[in-house]
Amino acid sequence: MDNEIFDIEEELKKLPDQPGVYIMHDERDVIIYVGKALSLTKRVHQYFQASHDEGLKKKQMVSHIARFEYIVTDSELEALVLENNLIKEHRPKYNTMLRDDKTYPYICVTLSEAYPRVIFSRHAKKDNNRYFGPFTSGAAVRDTIDLVNKLYQLRTCNRKFPRDFGKERPCLNYHMEQCRGVCTGDVDEESYGNSVREAMKFLDGDYKPVIKDLKKKMADCAERMEFERAATYRDLIESVMDCVEKQKITSNDGEDKDILAAACEGEDAVVQVFFIRGGKMIGREHFFINVRMDDELQDVINAFMKQYYAGTPFVPREIFVQTRLSEIDMLESWLTKKRGKKVSIVAPQRGAKEKLVELAEKNARMVLDQDRERIKREEGRTIGAMKEIAGLIGLERIDRMEAYDISNTSGYQSVGSMVVFEKGKPKRSDYRKFRIKTVTGPNDYESMREVLTRRFSHGLADRKKAGIDGAAALEEGLSGFMRFPDVIMMDGGRGQVNIALEVLDELGLSIPVCGMVKDDHHRTRGLYCDNVEIAIDKSSEGFKLITRLQDEAHRFAIEFHRSLRGKNQVKSFLDDIKGIGPARRKALMKSFVGPEEMKAASIEELMDIPEMNRQAAESVYDYFHKKDGE
Questions:
Q1: pLDDT(605) > 80
Q2: What is the spatial distance between Cα 282 and Cα 497, in angstroms, rounded to a whole number?
Q3: In the chain, fewer beta carbons within 10 Å around the N or the C end?
């Protein structure tokens, strides 16, 4: 629906008294909030009632609503699932957002194969295989897989059996007695299956039989004076014990639980999760969340649980939280349906369970405090550096900087790069590459003119299509070429700056331009702005940021140029010389540093190159000297 004819008062009257999801759009039709409701008409009306207090953040959001839409569902539970999917897809500005998007490792036993393997997996799929996990450490999972394969001599190859029996010689693992050699065809499926079943018992936590068997084998080898073999069993015992030690017992009931607790401050929160599987704590993880200033603790936990458990295939039987949740019944119903068995959400008030939640909360607070210090340091390197640069060149603030560079080989196939830093950090999604189309030869100034003209002409055209008033538009919320920088940083001095200013003037744009001036050693020494070179303290964060920006523009241009050369798309001036093919071109480029040195060579010196004859040498000599009118 067109924002200009959307009448909020009229549309509010049409809302149904049914469960569903409502979606708020701003004036640019960007989704800024997604919510669910048991009654759409009651919930959405609340946002527009002056007497209803939604908190500061919600008030700001409501002021930006240009239109809304809704999707009716059969139940609030269905609305919960749909709300979560839409939040994950659109990442609205005013929703409480889980900032981490992690997948956790599993150990997969490929029971769907005739001779199963034990492998690493990032997902627990609904198939015929058996999955153990999730675990928090990929390295620990790989170590465990290696141990299991050694203990039970399971195959690690990707061959298909019995189809591939005897097709290739056994691998090194077979000769090291770390694989039974399924590929030979001499291992029957039943015997191998017994080993797999024992491996799964081990993965389930049944370690004692393994240690007992290994100790017996070690003792037998020592008695037969097979000390090297005994040492191998000793090492395996140590590996198993190490694996056991990593599993800290936290309860004796053998149940699967997650312990959740949050610490909040301002618009930042950390949720700490302890993973307890089979009564053992297998690890912990923390998650950073963007919250609203007026969010209560239960709001944070509610939002986290919906996003986190929607993204993980494993749901434990019990989830301990630090406060009673407002949506507990609906969350339990949703998680029970997802798990296929009853799931309970508990806020323990006493005993060992409460101590576990307190411990999780203490860890969350510690991570949040440490992160605040890290953010403070990071802001000095980024936002603080931007403020410093803004002060140097007389701007009130800088959020976005763009830098440009030109790269070519002897003037052929020139390319341009555009890199973007926002709030002091690279925004790689906005980087752009340009192949120079209108300039022949090594003319960096005209190549830069073309790049800047194309970049800003494209931006103005995109703005016009979107109905935005060209150069006068506010930059916040725009993306791609439509978003203009607060300052342009040129990789050079006065000449590059003047080219940029000419282009902007022709297009009717007013954007500050600075040149990143280098010294004789090609190192940044200062900024050239408004016909004045500004010296910068080389130990300052602003100077370091300018250097990073300049290096990034140069790196991006060179990288693009190399990729073209790798595809044989860059033309060399040697391609224009008759009689010079790939072999001679390569030999000439190896023998001379550049075209100037090649130009200074005599015919005899050119003939000293083994691949060259007189005719080819004369062609090269004539190319340079006839071109100069000699």
A1: yes
A2: 58
A3: C
Q: Please, what's the b/e burial string for 532-553 (b: 16 or more CB within 10 A of its CB; e: otherwise)?
A: eeeebeeeebbbbbbebbbebb
290 three-class SS? strand
CA 629 to chain CA centroid, Å, is 57
Say what the pTM is.
Answer: 0.41
CB 278 within 8 A of CB 254: yes
What per-residue confidence (pLDDT) applies to 464?
A: 87
pLDDT of residue 293: 77
Amino acid making up residue 211: I
Domains and CATH numbers, the chain: 3-95 (3.40.1440.10), 106-205 (no CATH), 257-378 (3.30.420.10), 387-566 (3.30.420.340), 573-627 (1.10.150.20)
Both structure tokens of 521: 């050693």
Give the tens place of pLDDT for each residue, 460-500: 988 888 877 655 555 556 777 888 999 999 987 888 899 99
Strands 280-290 and 248-249: antiparallel
Question: Hey, CA dihedral for 325, 330, 331, 333, is it positive or negative?
Answer: positive
Q: Which of 29-43, 52-66, 106-120, 243-257 has the lowest mean pLDDT?
A: 243-257
Which candidate, 618, 535, 565, 300, places its Cα nearest to that of 415?
Answer: 565
Longest distance between any two alpha carbons in the chain, whole Å: 98
Burial class (CB in 10 A: 0-12, 13-18, 19+), 453: middle
Return the higher-pLDDT residue of 538 and 139. Answer: 538
CB 110 within 8 A of CB 131: no
Q: How many CA atoms lie within 13 A of 625 on its CB side?
A: 12
The 10s digit of each residue's pLDDT in 218-248 is 898 888 888 888 888 888 787 777 665 544 3
Quick one: three-class SS letters along 499-514?
HHHHHHHHCCCCCCEE
Rounded-to-integer distance, Cα 406 and Cα 630, Å: 32
Structure-token pair, residue 198:
């024992």
C-alpha–C-alpha distance, residues 477 and 225, integer Å: 76
Cα angle 523, 524, 525 (rounded to 5 degrees) comes to: 110
Is the backbone peptide bond immediately before 16 cis, with ω within 30 degrees of 0?
Answer: no
Adjacent-strand bridge partners of 400:
422
Give the DSSP H/E element, type plus range, for residue 408: strand 400-409
Q: What is the DSSP letter of 266?
A: T
User: Per residue in 36-54, pLDDT tens?
Assistant: 988 999 999 988 887 666 6
End-to-end CA distance of the chain: 72
Q: Specify the length of the chain in residues.
A: 630
CB 400 within 8 A of CB 483: yes
Question: What is the phi/psi pair of residue 73, to 5°?
Answer: -125, 170
Q: Which two tokens stand for residue 311?
A: 């993204």
Q: What pLDDT, in 10s, does the model give residues 172-201? A: 888 888 888 889 888 888 989 998 998 888
